[in-house]
Amino acid sequence: MNLRLRIKRGVMCAVAVAIAAMPFSQAFANDESDDFGVWTSIDASKKLTEKMKFGLEGEFRTTDGVKEIDRRSLGFSLSYKAFTWLKADVGYIFMNTYEPAETKTEFFDVVDGEEKYSTKYDHAYRVNKDRLFASLTASFDVGRFDFSFRERLQYTYTNDAFTTEDKDTWYYKDEVNLADPDIDTKTEVEQKDPKRNTTLRSRLTVKWDIRKCPIKPFVSAELFTRVDEWHFHDKIRYRAGADYKIDKDNSVSLFYIYQNANDDDEPAGHAIGASYSFDL
Fold it and tell me: Beta 269-279 vs 35-47: how paired, if at all?
């Protein structure tokens, strides 16, 4: 199978998952506390030596059902299998991500008996991010189950960006006029400063190797910990799905994801997705 046909198959798989997800997106969207999205990816790998491999991955994610493109990314990695049970890898990912609208209300002061407030509404915008990562993955088998534990340290630099900000400054004169305050509104361009984020990701994955079956179910749990701010953990991501090996060079994976908290990468909530992998 040539490279063009492999990429075409991967794209068709990603599109099919996105279309299939549309009816489910409305159901999840009814839960205001959780987001719903579709995650798709295509990755290719090339063995350079017996122990070293080069990888290339493109990813596309949606949020708010399939209404917004949450993330577009392209990355590469280099992995080295030090032992049969231990693999190390390093890599880089370029991401373009969606930042949702944000509203903040602040109390300023009391002037001549009037309470002064300010409400800032930042419109949604897109921002570019650069990510470096290094990982160690240990694997072992217990019967028909494959266990793997990965520790990944990643550094993300969020570039500066611009958005439109609506700012309302208003005054409450007294309790009688609470429903009709004096409002002064202005709109201006707001610059978002660069941000840095260093996170440790600890993931445990269990796969079931069913005898004489090309389908391999799996579950995983991943803990995200901000080491630059010394949080115990920021969020936990749960994943369940199945890998299907088409042949020795091609495989697909279908999965469901739930994560319990918002962070700089994604909102809390649910996602379904598919990935297509092939060896060159």
Answer: parallel
